[in-house]
Amino acid sequence: MTREMTGAEMVIEALADQGVQHIFGYPGGAVLPIYDALFQQEKVRHILVRHEQGAVHAAEGYARSTGKVGAVLVTSGPGATNAVTGLTDALMDSIPLVCITGQVPTHLIGNDAFQECDTVGITRPCTKHNYLVKRIEDLPRVLHEAFFVAANGRPGPVVVDIPKDIQFAKGTYVGPQNIKHKTYTPRLKADIEKVKAALELMSRAKRPIFYTGGGVINSGTEASHLLRELVKLTGFPITSTLMGLGAFPAANPQWLGMLGMHGTYEANMAMHDCDVMICIGARFDDRITGRLDAFSPGSRKIHIDIDPSSINKNVKVDVGIVGDCGHVIEDLTRLWRAAGVKTDQKALKDWWAQIDKWRARKSLNYRNSSEIIKPQYAIQRLYEATRDKDVYITTEVGQHQMWAAQFFHFQEPNRWMTSGGLGTMGYGLPAAVGVQMAHPKSLVIDIAGEASVQMTMQELSTAVQYRLPIKIFILNNQYMGMVRQWQELLHGNRYSESYSEALPDFVKLADAMHAHGIRCRKPGDLDEAIKEMISIDKPVLFDCVVDQKENCFPMIPSGRAHNEMILGDAAENLDEAITEEGKMMV
Amino acid sequence: MNTTATTTHYPAATTHERAESHTLTVLVDNEPGVLARVIGLFSGRGYNIDSLTVSETEHQKHLSLITIVTTGTPMVIEQIKHQLERLVPVHRVVDLTVTGKAIERELALVKVRGKGEHRVEALRLADAFRARVIDATTESFVFEITGKSDKIDQFVELMLPIGLVDVSRTGVVAIGRGAEAM
Ligand SMILES: Cc1ncc(C[n+]2csc(CCOP(=O)(O)OP(=O)(O)O)c2C)c(N)n1
Ligand SMILES: [Mg+2]
What we know:
The structure holds 2 protein chains of 2 kinds. By secondary structure, chain A is α/β, with parallel strands linked by helices. Chain A has 22 helices and 20 strands. In chain A, 38% of the residues lie in helices and 17% in strands. In chain A, helix 1 (7-17) crosses helix 2 (32-39), helix 11 packs antiparallel against helix 14 and helix 15 (375-386) crosses helix 21. Chain B folds into 2 domains: 20-100, ACT domain (Alpha-Beta Plaits, 2-Layer Sandwich), CATH 3.30.70.260; 103-175, 2-Layer Sandwich (Alpha-Beta Plaits), CATH 3.30.70.1150. Chain B has helices at residues 3-7, 34-44, 74-86, 96-99, 117-128, 149-163, and strands spanning 20-29, 51-58, 63-72, 90-95, 102-113, 132-137, 140-147, 164-169, 173-176.
């Protein structure tokens, strides 16, 4: 379909053709023509945020909970620079976004015009790709290409910078049919010989482990189903990164919990002692590996990733498979069945017995209290109160985020939205806005810290405006708890600037913002208060006053190995749980 | 595009002077990121780069020389010069087109494939252009040619019908005539 229209109209047309129903944004001089075009149509709904960072996080939440490309619209200059944190966040966590930025007219570019900034220059390192469109003839192609690049291969954010004169200019719109990028054609199907080599290693494994990540979730819900099948078929244990939670159900006995810096004892010990590691859609990030030269020293490693540059980046692997997780898992499953693989049952039984010993340490144990709400307890109660509900969780960044990952259990993909790679405080509230927009009937909860939530607090107004009944569940410990924990660990308990002074009265704040406020101080009142929160059909700001001093365990201090974990004092002290090698290193 | 002037708060474009080609040499500290800064300046401000070469010239002093050929109106060219001068690792910028007495050279490697008459013709032309044969097989030559860019353009064009396969060009390097330093 080709039609004459203005550049601004092309933007709307392309968004609609790409299946965009919601776009998060904020107007300004350099995007007024696009806002005018938005005003005159009903295909694409605009959600007005309160800060452009919020628009990008909302689009991230939208994208992660739906599997679709998130869309953002911001003006030039400050609009674009405010979006930078969100774009970087999306790049680090491989979230598909298209962010349209207005730009000063082409004849003023480079002149330091009002609200000009070098948007493509600034966003080059924090996007998967970006474009400055200087000719109306290029606009339709670039818009469609942007969606293709954002969604295909390893997903990521794409910026399209459109000068104002191009928005006014008239041209011929071209639909998205046959948009194929000239150079970018990521590989989906893997080299079958490599898959066979992986199968060979897996079939002879004595102490195998699956280590999966956000790539499985990005690959689509089908990949998560295939993963379940493969894990069941093999009988191997499975752990996952923070980003991958939900791809495999936490209720399944083969699940070892999350791994990494605040992962479970059993997951990290199994990673350390395994003889075959099957990494699917994860990237050997430093929060996962700890000390690199001591990372899983005795294992042969298989790495499946759609991004060739992820393979052998941090950790040298034995079999690197480039391809889409879903496709590769399917191949593996098919070949495993066809070959009628017989695993070493005796070895696997011993391996599971060892894992059970590690599990018996109960590394997530904590000392509960009847006087004061322990943050872990709060998450447990929240989980219990919502486990039968259609629930989506977002988080901010800090201790509360780790406790959420440890104590809230996910059975399905796309239910857990957290800032993993960049660790952006202020992510959770706007992300919840985006999730709720995509799932109006579902229960959407931002598990927050009192410090983080203040970074993007203003988006509560967005939630109120669009009647998005998000629940902001603040674990208020009056500290930047994660900072305080590190200060205890590394800086002699000198709590430099990590106390949350002058906190707002969150209940009154909620009131002032036309939301609902709840405060809870006593463990005995918690269940009732959570029930109230869920029952209210409005945004709720829940001030859960928790123990100020609680720390997050278990923990691998950075620069240490997996078998050098620090366990909380409530963990079971079972001597035989530590391997001989482990004892030497602790 | 008249609408622009009436419906936005931006001033309209001024009528354009004629664009001309200029050759600039830029003496910079050879530190990481310096080339990215120079290129970023051009792309960020919408200036053209027709040719760009860079190499370390004084190892001891960690100096590199960048030669840029760009097109723009005299006003834009002056802006470019000032913008380059403003970059922290830049020592000096000379617009050789303005100083007016510069020598420019470019080197190209040109691969040609052909048999019989075509081989003879290729060698004849190479001779006329003082291009040297630096690789040969029974069906191909690689020529090395130096000179001004238009001479190279011309050579490449003549090789096209004979069987041009690949061209690799260094881009322009330039230096001022006479005894003075830049
Ligand atoms: C934008 C941003 N600034 C700084 C940090 C560093 N940082 C990580 S966690 C944290 C404290 C978070 O405090 P709070 O939200 O109260 O969570 P808690 O750890 O207390 O649960 C800080 C400052 C960050 N992750 N993001
Ligand atoms: Mg806190």
